[in-house]
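Deliverable D5.2: sample structural annotation.
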Amino acid sequence: METTTYQIYTSIAKLHKSWDEVAHKNVFLQSHYLKVLEESAPTNMQCFYIGIFEKETLIGVALAQYLDLNKVESFGERDQCIKTYIRNFIFKNFASHALFVGNNMITGQNGYSFNKEINAITIAEILNNCAAEIVSYFKKQDVKIQIVSFKDFYQESATELRKSTFSLLYEFNTQPNMIFELQNRWKTNSDYIEALTKKYRDQYKRAHKKVEGIETRELSLEEIISQENRIYELYFHVAKNAPFNTFFLAKNHFSSFKKQCGSKFILVGYYIENELVGFHTLLLNGSVLETYFLGYDEQIQKEKMLYLNMLYNMTKFGIENQFKKIIFGRTALEIKSSIGAEPIVMSGFIYHTNKYVNKVMANIFPKLEPTLVWQQRHPFK
């Protein structure tokens, strides 16, 4: 650590000139994506961009996000039970000001990137120091950060981080990340369908037949802007009915994404007689296809199996464009497994800034995560 330093930025305009060279392996750390956050982050979020230096040379970049959960109008309306009320009470009273070192808007190990090998002990020290500095920054503004979370590490990275000061933190595993490893032999969508068992080929055919009459097309920036209110209405319907939320997107989020990321961001609309009834979004991240937010009309979704058809369409895009994997994220685990995605366990590390609350974190944290019972499907021969 003697020659390793860091600089925390609050504006994209101040980033080091080598930022994108260091972040080239991960689109979620590149400046055009960070500009999306700067232009259209959720209203309860503030972002911090961290440059990590070896002497004068930038060797790493990282992202941190502050969330004021007092500004979230709903933590999620799907599950109305005693445990949900307990969870909401705990968040309001003990975790309403949260700092995430990483990206709370997406699933996956997207919190930092280095252009050289850095050992886990050094990474942990840097991230801890950055978190402490941001906590101090807010303290000077009379805002007390209660929760600090280092989020989303694949198991190999988590194992290494356990050898560092992270061993003193509470390690948690939330719902798994659903990842679809695409087979090299699949060159067309027909190859994928052929690989399915009869039961899941029949599911595909049934869903495909249901969606007849719906037109799909990729929207340009101008079309996204013109449909912005409708897109947000469809997104918000899905988001507020999720089991848990810590933010809601800004209305201009999708148009900002398209403006900043261009062809790397795709929004596909689903139309019935020129009325937008659903959409899904994709982000091209090197050889990885990242699924992003979506929305739909609930009645059309039920009648047309719209969500399942969206999953099939995203899979088709991934195969036909020769991506190696598709990141489907944490929601709807069972239906995603039915198309071929598999659960990958991810870890996070967390602490409470109140030392007394922190001592009982192992008892408190399980009450914050919605309980989910699901059955993994195995759709291939």
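Annotation notes: The mean pLDDT is 92. The longest helix spans residues 120-139.
The annotation will be released with the project's public dataset once the embargo ends.
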